[in-house]
Automatic annotation (TrEMBL):
Family that this chain belongs to: Belongs to the MnmA/TRMU family.
tRNA-specific 2-thiouridylase MnmA-like C-terminal domain sequence ranges: 288-364
Name of the protein in question: tRNA-specific 2-thiouridylase MnmA
Enzyme class: transferase
Name of encoding gene: mnmA
Region (Interaction with target base in tRNA): 92-94
Active site residues of this protein: 97 (nucleophile), 197 (cysteine persulfide intermediate)
Keyword terms of this UniProt record: ATP-binding, Cytoplasm, Disulfide bond, Nucleotide-binding, RNA-binding, Transferase, tRNA processing, tRNA-binding
Source species: Thauera aminoaromatica
Entry's Gene Ontology BP terms: tRNA wobble position uridine thiolation
Gene3D superfamilies linked to this entry: Adenine nucleotide alpha hydrolases-like domains (2.30.30.280), HUPs (3.40.50.620), Translation factors (2.40.30.10)
Chain sites annotated for binding ATP: 6-13, 32, 121
C-alpha cells in the first residue's frame, strides 16, 4: 500500500514516516509550504524545516515531494482568520488548517500521486468498527493525554478518516524521541513548533497590525461603567486576557490579603468598540455554565443524543468537562456544563467526547 506522509521537519512526522516504512508500506514524504508573506523573516522556519525533511527522508530511504498550498491557505484559512478577528472573535486557525489544508488539499494531492492512505504525525487514533452492518470510523484520543490532538481534528469526516493513519496515536512523546534517536534522525531532540500554524512564535499583535488597522476605543469597567483606559483594537484582546491591558495601576477591589485584584477582559462590544474588563479571576462575568455553538461537525455524520452525559473541551488546554447537549437545531448546539467554565471565548472551538471517542463539535458563538 502506498502512503503519503505529511512531513513538517519535526520529530513527530519523521517517526511517522519511519514506522510506516518499517511496517512495509510504500512511503513518500510530502512537505507542504503554506505561507509566503515573510518567508525570509526570523520567525518563519520553512527553509530550515525543508532541509530537515530532506535529511530525514534520505536517512529513512524514501522519496520526497514538495507542494505549495500558500494560495489555498490564504483563501481558506487566513481570510477566515482575519474576518473572525475583525468581528471581535478569537478563532483557532489550526482547526481550520487541518480540515481545509492537511486533510483536504493534502489528501487530494496525495490521491493524485497514487496514494491509498495519508498519514500525519498527529497524536490521535482512528478506529474502524461495524455499526449496523456498515463500517464507521471513529476519531479517538491519543494514549499520551498530554499530547492528544484530537481537539484540532474534530472537523474531519468519515471519508477523510477512512483514508488517514495516525501511527503515533499509541505512543508517548518520549518514545517517539527515543525511536528517532536510535534511528539516527538528527531531529530527535528538535524543539516542537508552537504558536499558530503560520505565525509561529512571533509577537502576535505586531503581526496582526500588518493586516488589520488599529481602531482605538474605550476600556470600561463592566461593573460600574468607568472609563479605565484605551485599547488599540478589540481584535488584540481575548476573553480572560490579563496582560497587555495597561491598566494594572488602577485601584479597585481588593482580595482577602488586601492586594488589588488584577483586571481581566470579560466582554467586547463590537458595535460600540468598547472593551469591558472586571477585577478578579473568579468574577462571575468570567464564568459560564452554558454555551451555544455553530458550524457544527459530527464525525459520525449524525447528531449525538441530547441529554446524555458527555464531556467537552471549550478550549484546547482545558481538562474534559462533564456536560449535556441540551438541544441541536438550526445548525446550532446548546451545551450545558456541570460546573461553570472560565473565560468561554467566542470563536474558539468546543469539542465533545464520549469517553475516548471524539464526537465532533462547533464554533462557540
Amino acid at each position: 500500500m502506498k502512503v503519503v506522509v505529511g512531513m513538517s521537519g519535526g520529530v513527530d512526522s519523521a517517526v511517522t514516516a519511519l514506522l510506516l516504512k518499517r511496517q512495509g508500506y510504500q512511503v513518500t514524504g510530502l512537505f507542504m509550504k503554506n505561507w509566503e508573506d515573510d518567508d525570509d523573516s526570523e520567525y518563519c522556519s520553512t527553509r530550515q524545516d525543508l532541509v530537515d525533511v530532506a535529511s530525514v527522508c534520505d536517512v529513512i530511504g524514501i522519496d520526497l515531494e514538495v507542494v505549495n498550498f500558500s494560495a489555498e491557505y490564504k483563501d481558506r484559512v487566513f481570510a477566515d482568520f482575519l474576518h473572525e478577528y475583525e468581528a471581535g472573535r478569537t478563532p483557532n486557525p489550526d482547526v481550520l488548517c487541518n480540515s481545509e489544508i492537511k486533510f483536504r488539499c493534502f489528501l487530494d494531492h496525495a490521491m493524485q500521486l497514487g496514494a491509498e492512505r495519508i498519514a500525519t504525525g498527529h497524536y490521535a487514533q482512528v478506529r474502524e468498527w461495524a455499526n449496523d452492518g456498515r463500517s464507521e470510523y471513529q476519531l479517538l484520543k491519543a494514549e499520551d493525554g498530554t499530547k492528544d490532538q484530537s481537539y484540532f481534528l474534530y472537523r474531519l469526516n468519515q471519508e477523510q478518516l477512512a483514508k488517514t493513519m495516525f501511527p503515533l496515536g499509541a505512543l508517548y512523546k518520549r518514545e517517539v524521541r527515543r525511536i528517532a534517536a536510535e534511528a539516527g534522525l538528527h531531529v530527535a531532540e528538535k524543539k516542537d513548533s508552537t504558536g499558530i500554524c503560520f505565525i509561529g512564535e512571533r509577537p502576535f499583535r505586531e503581526f496582526l497590525m500588518r493586516y488589520l488597522p488599529t481602531r482605538p476605543g474605550e476600556i470600561r469597567a463592566l461593573d460600574d461603567g468607568r472609563v479605565l483606559g484605551e485599547h488599540q483594537g478589540l481584535m488584540y484582546h481575548t476573553i480572560g486576557q490579563r496582560k497587555g491591558l495597561h491598566i494594572g495601576g488602577l485601584k479597585g477591589h481588593q482580595d482577602e490579603a488586601g492586594e488589588h485584584e488584577a483586571w481581566y477582559v470579560a466582554q467586547k462590544d463590537v458595535k460600540a468598540n468598547v472593551l469591558y474588563v472586571v477585577q478578579g479571576h473568579a468574577h462571575p462575568a468570567l464564568l459560564r455554565d452554558h454555551l451555544v455553538a455553530g458550524e457544527l461537525n459530527w464525525i459520525a455524520g449524525r447528531d449525538p443524543h441530547s441529554h446524555w452525559v458527555y464531556t467537552a473541551k471549550p478550549r484546547y488546554r482545558t481538562p474534559d468537562q462533564p456536560c449535556e447537549i441540551d438541544r441541536i437545531a438550526d445548525g446550532r448546539a446548546e451545551i450545558a456544563f456541570a460546573q461553570p467554565q472560565w473565560a468561554v471565548t467566542p470563536g474558539q472551538s468546543v469539542v465533545v467526547y464520549e469517553s475516548k471517542v471524539c464526537l465532533g463539535g462547533g464554533i462557540i458563538l
